[in-house]
Amino acid sequence: MPAEGVQLTAQPNLLKTDEVIRLAELFVKEGVTKIRLTGGEPTIRKDLVDIIASLKQIDGLESVAITTNGLMLTRQLVALQRAGLDVLNVSLDTLRPARYEQVTRRKGFERVMAGIDLALQLDYNPVKVNCVLMRGFNDDEICDFVQLTEDRNLDVRFIEYMPFAGNKWNDEKMVSYKEMVQTLKARWPEFHPLSNGPNDTSKAYKVPNFKGQVGFITSMSEHFCGSCNRLRITADGNLKVCLFGNAEVSLRDAMRSGCSEDDLLALIGGAVRRKKKQHADQKPACSFHQMPEWKNEQIARISNVQHAWEQSLLLHLPNIMNNNFRRLELRGFCSQTDKTLTHTDEKGRATMVDVGNKDVTTRIAIAQAEVRVGAHIMSLIEQNTMKKGDVLTTAQLAGITAAKRTSELIPLCHNISLSHVNVDLKLDKENHTVVITSTARCEGRTGVEMEALTAVAVSALTVYDMCKAVSHDIVISEVRLLFKTGGVRGEFRRQ
Asked: What pLDDT does residue 292 have?
């Protein structure tokens, strides 16, 4: 706990109970099997028992866990177990009461230990105990922690000290996994490794004849990013594909602005595809083809952090259709006797084309736009370090949403029921350009080229909006139709 405390997030900005459950249902539907409620401190939420009970009702969810500081376990654990809590993690960095008070800025070490013993009595086997080992602070207790596993079925997991904003990290404080193992083998020469699962974050070890075991989370010295299948959602609804990443996408804002399930999936999928392959350096993100299929076995972490993360862009396009459009008249562009123009009536007033007599056919359109951003902005986009958030994912969702609302933005366009819309953004690093391509399809009586063009145009404007704080020297160009098919004029293909 920082000496100055933490700034709490305003209650309306936190995810509501039903929003937590809606997101959980969405992720489980896409293949997530485990959900952990973590911190901040989840036990301070008055609806924690209700959330766990509701999560356990989701078909396909195999495990619900919490990570807690343990202070409230003696009061709450029985109710949490009845609600269906499967797995318990307790964060504990010291076994010395005075040192505990120093790091947490409160008393309560005895309550935490009583909570751990209660969990063992309630058959949480093992209880996982997480300890961040820091040189010069608690590294002298490593053997004491392992000694706890002699007669308790605990999984004590030592976490390498990691750099976060505000924790005054320096590499001299970090005790590496190999150094920890050497220390423990000097005390217990037969201390040996156990087998691990393909997506385990902890390297398991054991002292022979001890009841419990030990694990090492090697986030710094031997990162496990390549096998990481975890996602994280903050208490205020931001999706983080990596704990270390700055980029966040606000699922809360998307839900509250009326995004459909398909829109949310597009937002999530785009963010996951841009997950970096390694957290601790500045290498570019994996390409789509290098990433594993995200929906097969992701673990969504519904986080209960009590401080606010930087808000992502609100992804709701306003409805600009109003009465002025209904009164729009075109004057001086055609005579009353000219019958060749299709968007005006005999008096020269704007009107929609009547397509009721046209045949229903498959209509497909592909459009493209380019945004020249310069070398510096290109680097920020590629590294996903723009302060406003994930530029490519935000622009992708904005383009998809715009395609669906084209008839609201272009007054004389028909309201089309799209069967498919996709927006793809690629980085042309040689020319410092974001290339945006959209595809729209429907089964109907009129074409979808306007939907495809609107998608790339709004997506390009979103790239501009996300990047303009860095530089206004951004050029949107080459907004064009590449291909269309369907309708009386047949196929068009730009050479």
From this structure: 32
CA 76 to CA 201: how far, in whole Å?
Answer: 28
Distance CA 223, CA 355 (A): 59
pLDDT at 246: 54
Residue 245's pLDDT is: 56
Q: Return the pLDDT at 352.
A: 52
Rg (CA), the chain: 28
User: Angle formed by the axes of helices 261-273 and 17-29, to 10°?
Assistant: 70
| Gap between the Cα atoms of 116 and 113, Å rounded | 5
Residue 238 burial (10 A CB sphere; 0-12, 13-18, 19+): buried
> What are 426's two structure tokens?
């690629």
Q: DSSP 3-state assignment of 43?
A: helix
pLDDT at 69: 94
Q: Are 80 and 42 in contact (CB under 8 A)?
A: no
Cα distances (Å, whole numbers) of residue 475 to 215, 225, 382, 472:
52, 36, 18, 9
Q: How many helices (H) and strands (E) does the chain have?
A: 14, 17
> What single DSSP character describes residue 141?
G
Contact 237, 19 (CB under 8 A): yes
153, 212 Cβ separation under 8 angstroms: yes
Amino acid identity of residue 95, one-letter, is L
Q: What is the pLDDT of residue 328?
A: 25
The span from the CA of 59 to the CA of 32, in Å, is: 11
Those residues of the chain that have pLDDT short of 50 are 164-167, 169, 279-344, 347-350, 355
**Distances from the Cα of 466 to the Cα of 130, 265, 373, 459, 460, angstroms:** 38, 21, 11, 11, 10
| Beta strands 238-240; 249-250: pairing state | antiparallel
Active site residues: 465
Q: For 232, which DSSP code? A: E
- Residue for token pair 């699962």: 197
Burial of 82 (0-12, 13-18, 19+ CB in 10 A): exposed
321-357 pLDDT, tens digit each: 222 222 222 222 233 333 344 444 554 444 555 545 5
Instruction: Please give the Cα distance from 202 to 133 (Å, whole number).
Output: 14
Q: pTM of the prediction?
A: 0.60
Q: How far apart are CA 54 and CA 83, in angstroms?
A: 8
Composition of the chain by helix, strand, coil, percent to 5: 30, 20, 45
For 68, the 3-state DSSP assignment is strand
For residue 388, count other CB atoms closer than 10 A to its CB.
17
- Distance of alpha carbon 139 from alpha carbon 341, whole angstroms: 81
Phi and psi, residue 427, nearest 5°: -100, 120
Q: Rounded distance, CA 460 to CA 371, Å?
A: 6
Direct distance between the N- and C-terminal alpha carbons of the chain, in angstroms, rounded to an integer? 62
